[in-house]
Amino acid sequence: SIGVSLRTVVGIFLYGVKEQVFRLHWDLHCPHCNMITHEYNSLSNASGSSSCKMCDIEFTADFADRVEVTFSLDPE
């Protein structure tokens, strides 16, 4: 442990999104295999349903349990 709180780390990443250093993604996971079925750049674009090609199922998106926020470097 390096002694930095999760709140501090998330704050740094969110500031990096604002400064266009990072991009924020909303990843929707399959409830059966946990594979990412959709990735959204904005939660407002997210759909209430999804499908998993690996499991060959359609499911209703549970945003409390099945959505993960990830960050990536801005390519520019």
What is the chain-wise order of helices and strands? HEEEEE
Strand residue content:
35-45%
Can you give the helix content as a percent range?
10-25%
Global structural class? alpha+beta
Strand order of the largest sheet: 2-1-5
Could you walk me through the main structural features you see in this protein, from its secondary elements to its overall organization?
The chain is 17% helix and 37% strand. It has one helix spanning 6-18, and strands at 22-29, 36-40, 49-52, 57-60, 67-73. The protein starts with 5 loop residues before the first helix and ends with a strand. It contains one helix and five strands. The mean pLDDT is 91. With 76 residues, it is α+β, with helices and mostly antiparallel strands. A hairpin with a 4-residue loop joins strand 3 and strand 4. The longest helix is centred in the first third of the chain and has 13 residues, at 6-18.
Please give the structural blueprint.
Layout: H1 6-18, E1 22-29, E2 36-40, E3 49-52, E4 57-60, E5 67-73
Antiparallel strand pairs: 1-2, 1-5, 3-4
Notable traits:
76 residues; 3-stranded antiparallel beta sheet; alpha+beta; 17% helix; two-stranded antiparallel sheet
Describe this structure in a few short sentences.
This protein is of the alpha+beta class and 76 residues long. The chain contains one helix and five strands, in the order αβββββ. The strands form two sheets. A three-stranded antiparallel β-sheet has the order 2-1-5. A two-stranded antiparallel ribbon has the order 3-4.
